[in-house]
Write a structure and sequence with these properties.
It is built from 25 helices and ten strands. With 596 residues, the protein is α+β, with helices and mostly antiparallel strands. β1 and β2 form a beta hairpin. It starts with a helix and ends with a helix.
Length: 596
């Protein structure tokens, strides 16, 4: 066997392991001095479950787990797959009678974890209750969501690969055929069930020195076609994001878990679609690269891209019951780096949520004009001026312009956008205080409450929603500041109503919470809002009902319960009084939104 044949065999093995660094491969030797580990894959020290197990005093249990699995593999001379604390490991005995040596891969899941699974694992390892306020638990969840999932067919293929690897290491297989056999496994099963995301990531990478996978050859090599699942050079980037119903927000860590399941499913779904590959978009969405057929004119190509986006939306809706929005970047020349198209797709994606669009091309809103930071400053100044004049329509237009420019300035950087919004909020708040000074305690309490949701929002669209909600609250306080402490108490009450609309809200209870008698509360409320307490609550509930009717398949009775109405009849009567339509007619009129 020539050295070149040996190298080709080793390279075939490398092509399986190197592109899937989240599943490390080791050789374990069991000798007189204990277990000796040799890392055969990614040398980086990625955070794994055993790090948490060791920290929380479960090292002895894991050592016993390793020992029992190795003993079984040595005795049976067969691969052993075992789990501890819900995490799986695979041990493959090397066919060498003179030593106890094994190939090992781990840790992984055998099915996608959900919130209940992760919570149970956390309790078992730490003895603590899972809570989003616990930073250690959040760290654990993020680690767990990055682990690979080896479902039955994929696990069987990986065992077969390890078998060839073991024979290669011990010189027991006809080496001339190893490369062919491993390439077949990689091509027919591994690449299909475990798409290579690193190539997609390099195609959209913002680093100008990072080459696209096809840059050197100017075309897709056969192995790239197999790994990516596409046959021609991609030209366009898309970005998809699930949107939660505003009336039923998840705990943000639960949202992370849900998003991870959607991401995995969409990456697999992309593999089934023509000329499309996908990777994760941070921890909330999916980045896609694709291309329309070159024979189509621009209008037909855009139509094809839109239809492609709608396929993914329909998939997410059917599989997870969640509405998704898609942004589409500019189409570039075949083979060009796709970072700019991807940046535009992400910007369009976040504008979808603000413009209530399901699919948005970047050039449909905002265009390609070169950005200058001075534009952002002018927009912030215009927003401040609108606040000073207390003009509602002007505030709405100025805030929309400002949000658009913050998105362009921040790109995909969540914390950059958050910091810009927070700085502007405090600037506006200081302007309100200069015009109408308040007591320190009331001022500080309001400022803290004003920014809390914005500081905690985990996704860009939620940051934008929190900013706009805070603007609305600030605008109300600014316009009613002459009422003194009463307006602060009333504003807090309005926020309470917006957050608890689904609960029973009897007038005497709400008035007492606000610190007023019922007559005084009713008088102050009407003077400040221009409407009665009952009408205001009804309008909030109807707005949330409209959202559920359009974005979910919930029955009218279920919508009524979710929005705080006493009965389905109560919802229908209130809905018709507010919108001049029945809920059923409203759903039918907006069916296209739901279908997308």
């Amino acid at each position: 066997m020539s050295w070149l044949s040996n190298l080709q065999n080793a390279y075939a093995i490398h092509n399986v392991i190197a592109h899937r660094p989240e599943l490390p491969v080791y050789v374990i030797r069991d000798g007189a001095d204990g277990l000796e580990w040799m890392d055969l894959s990614d040398p980086r020290d990625r955070l794994k479950p055993f790090h948490f197990e060791i920290f929380f005093g479960k090292e002895t249990a894991r050592d016993a787990h390793y020992r029992a699995a190795l003993d079984e593999a040595a005795r049976t001379q067969r691969p052993v797959c075992r789990q501890i604390f819900g995490f799986w490991d695979l041990f493959y005995p090397l066919p060498d009678p003179g030593t106890r040596a094994f190939l090992y891969v781990g840790q992984f899941y055998r099915e996608a974890p959900d919130w209940e699974t992760l919570s149970a694992q956390w309790r078992q390892i730490t003895g603590q209750e899972p809570t989003s306020a616990n930073t250690d638990f959040v760290h654990f969840v993020r680690m767990a969501l990055e682990l690979p999932i080896l479902e039955p067919e994929l696990l069987h293929a990986y065992e077969e690969f390890l078998g060839h690897y073991a024979e290669f290491l011990t010189d027991r297989e006809e080496r001339a055929t190893i490369q062919e056999r491993i390439d077949r496994i990689n091509r027919e099963t591994l690449s299909r069930l475990w798409p290579i995301e690193t190539w997609v990531e390099s195609a959209i990478d913002p680093d100008k020195f990072r080459l696209t996978p096809w840059r050197l050859d100017g075309k897709l090599a056969d192995y790239m076609k197999e790994g990516l699942g596409i046959g021609r050079l991609p030209t366009t980037a898309l970005a998809l994001m699930p949107l939660d119903s505003r009336s039923a927000p998840l705990d943000w860590v639960q949202t992370l878990v849900r998003n991870a399941r959607i991401q995995r499913a969409c990456i697999g779904f992309a593999r089934e679609q023509p000329e499309t590959a996908a990777t994760h978009l941070a921890d909330y969405g999916i980045s896609l690269i694709t291309s329309a057929r070159s024979s189509k004119n621009l209008a037909r190509a855009r139509l094809e891209l839109r239809e492609h986006a709608q396929k993914f939306q329909a998939f997410v809706k059917e599989r997870f019951g969640v509405r998704a929005v898609v942004g589409i970047g500019t189409t570039l020349a075949p083979g060009a780096p796709l970072h700019e198209s991807h940046r535009e797709a992400v910007l369009a994606l976040h504008m979808c949520a603000q413009l209530e669009r399901d699919v948005l091309f970047f050039d449909e809103h905002g265009g390609r004009s070169e950005f200058r930071y001075a534009e952002l400053q002018r927009a912030a100044t215009a927003l401040s001026g609108a606040f000073d004049r207390e003009h509602a329509t002007e505030i709405k237009l100025a805030s929309d312009r400002y949000v658009q420019l913050v998105l362009r300035y921040s790109g995909e950087r969540l914390e950059v956008a958050r910091s810009q919004f927070l700085a502007t909020l405090f600037q506006l708040w200081n302007g309100v205080l200069r015009r109408s000074p308040m007591q320190h305690e009331a001022r500080d309490r309001f400022a803290s409450d004003l920014t809390r949701r914005l500081e905690e929002a985990p996704a860009m669209y939620q940051v934008i929603e929190a900013f706009k909600e805070a603007l609305g609250r600030l605008s109300f306080v600014s316009s009613k500041a002459w009422q003194g402490s009463n307006v602060m108490r009333l504003e807090a009450t309005l926020q309470y109503l917006r957050e608890n609309f689904a609960e029973a809200l009897p007038l005497p209870l709400v008035a007492r919470k606000a610190g007023f008698s019922v007559p005084t509360f009713s008088r102050v409320f009407r003077r400040a809002t221009g409407t009665s307490f009952l009408t205001y609550v009804r309008s909030i509930r109807v707005e949330h009902a409209k959202n559920l009717i359009v974005t979910t398949p919930m029955s009218i009775d279920q919508v009524a319960q979710a929005c705080g109405f006493q009965s389905q009849h109560h919802l229908i009567r209130s809905f018709k009084k507010t919108t001049n339509q029945t809920p059923g007619a409203y759903r039918k009129a907006h069916a296209s939104v739901y279908e997308n």
